[in-house]
Every structure is written in structure tokens, then in C-alpha cells.
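Bumping with the actual sequence this time:
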Amino acid sequence: MILVHTCCAICLSYVRKKLEEEGYEIISFWYNPNIHPHREFLKRRNALRKYSELTNLNVIYDDDYPLADILENMAKLTRKNPVYRCRYCYELRMSKTAKMAKRMNIDTFTTTLLISPYQKHEEIKKIGENVAKKYGVKFLYRDFREGFKEAHRLVKGMGLYHQNYCGCIFSEYEKHLFKNKI
């Protein structure tokens, strides 16, 4: 059994497929207080709900949304270096996932963030391994990036919402900033 931190339904589709091919039983864990604005958070969560109903997947939802704390921490870190913001976000979500895995007696966890070519894989791997040691569980690192496009094919026709930025207000801003410079 493996607990999979899930950023969105589309990314989960391919990660789930690959992990089930390896023999894992999947439990999805939704914890993404970084997503802004709140309506975006709800769109992504509701898409995961729809996916889980259509595919009979067990999902645990943690809808904690401490907006003021998240924004304050991310703003401070972004001023220092935008990479620090991402590290904070990875650690926040993977720590919560590792704690949940430990509480549920699941010895391994991973994250759907590993499917994205836009995420910092070495940071995710390092943080995942550190968090795993801290909570006495294992972190499964897999480079799922080869399935980024296939994930969209796997859920085509399900009518799931698809986002176009990582999730935080800063990533949304950067998406528009870089798009306008091209």
C-alpha cells in the first residue's frame, strides 16, 4: 500500500497507473493549502472527487486552508529566492503526507508532483527522503515525467478540470509574466 500526495486528478491518473503496475494499492491524499485563489483550490479538489468517483479510488481529503500563513511564508521566501518558496511548499505537503501515512500504518508515500516537468525533482526527492526519515516511513521517488502527456489522454472524456499553473499566487503571476515576455 502507498499513500500518494495528490496535486490534481490528471497528474494522479498516470502516477496511479504506474504504481498499480508495480503492485501497489493506492490511497490518494489531497492536501494543497498552497493553491490560490480558493476557487482554484475548490476546482482542483472537486475534479479529484469526480475522478475518484469515476474510478473507484479511495481519497482522503484535508481541506485545511491557512491562507494568511501560507502567503506570509511564501512572500518572505520569494523575496530571498523563489526556489525557497517551492521548497517550503514541497516540505509542507510532503510532511503532512508522511504524518498521515504513519498515522494510517502505511509505510510508503510519494507525490504526484513527480510527474511535472516544471517541478524541481531533486528538491522533491531530497525533501521527501528527509521527511520520510523524520516520520519513520519510506519515500518512493519515481521520475514520472515521461507520462506527463499520457496523463491527459488517460482522463480524456472524464470532463475533469485542468489547471494551467502550479498553484500558488506566485506561480500564477510568473505564468503571466513569462507568457507576456515571449
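The C-alpha cells above came from a reply further down the thread. The mean pLDDT is 90.
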